[in-house]
Design brief:
This protein has helices at about 15-30, 45, 50-65, 85-90, 115-125, and strands spanning about 5-10, 35-40, 75-80, 100-105, 130-135. With about 140 residues, it is an alpha/beta fold. It has a domain at about 5-80 and about 100-115: Rossmann fold (3-Layer(aba) Sandwich).
Length: about 140
């Protein structure tokens, strides 16, 4: 049995988060782990002014199952707040994630950055290992 039973991955609909979900799902298959897909819900989404939340969920779950992960092992969480806080909460009891996975950058790009601000903040504050998946998804 693997020490990694639950993997949490951030998803915001960007290309980088898509690659991260695919990578995390493939790892979950290999480890027979659960996958929690975390989407940070901002003020507009929380107020019901954005209808893309359902599309994000369907897309993310489809990515995970296309990687071979059984749908019963996939959980979608729409969590209020900023992406870093939402992902850090995924490591809280009662069912804490053992690993956090994010893409190298989210939808708020800053040119010249190698890592996004969420990746850097997670690396600084997480109590579990953090994997930052490059856009190519080629992590060996």
């Amino acid at each position: 049995m693997s020490a990694i039973a639950r993997i949490a991955v951030g998803f915001d609909g960007s290309e980088d988060s898509t690659v991260a979900v695919e990578w995390a799902a493939a790892l979950a298959v290999r480890l027979a782990a659960q996958l929690r897909i975390v989407h940070a819900v901002g003020l507009l989404e929380g107020a019901g002014l954005s209808d893309h939340l359902i599309a994000h969920r369907e897309n993310a779950v489809a990515l995970a199952t296309a990687a071979g992960l059984d749908a019963s092992r996939v959980e979608w969480v729409a969590s209020p707040g900023d992406p870093c806080s939402a992902l850090l909460r995924a490591t809280d009891p009662p069912s804490p994630a053992d690993l956090l996975v994010v893409g190298s950058r989210g939808s708020g790009r800053h040119s010249g950055s190698l890592l996004g601000s969420t990746s850097l903040e997670l690396a600084e504050h997480s109590v579990v290992p953090v994997v930052v998946v490059p856009r190519s998804g080629d992590v060996r």
